[in-house]
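Reagents: none. Just compute today. Helix-turn-helix transcriptional regulator.
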Amino acid sequence: MSVKNKIKKFLYERGITAYQFRKDVGIAQRTAYDLYNNPDQLPSSTVLSKICDTYEVQPGEVLEWVPKSEKPEKGVSVESSQSDSSEENHGSIKNKAKPKSQMQLLPPQEAA
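Predicted 3D structure written out:
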């Protein structure tokens, strides 16, 4: 996801607690907790409208776009070990993705 919430920073800069945020905006405790503690949690359009109306701010003050280059990419690669003396050394799977510039495009295969 390339959009994140910055509610925690927004509230901190204004000296507003998570509890006061919940009361001010009139949202459920769980919703307020999720928005406050998880930047990947985005408010629904209804909740975003309530936040903007309550604090008289634009959506950009509580949401931000994060370019893909700033986010870690996810993928799978296999690393193998030089030693074959035990099963532990045959390889391990790690989260790692090749940058798009290193990916190779293969020609389409013909149907038989």
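The longest helix spans residues 45-55.
Action item: order primers for follow-up constructs.
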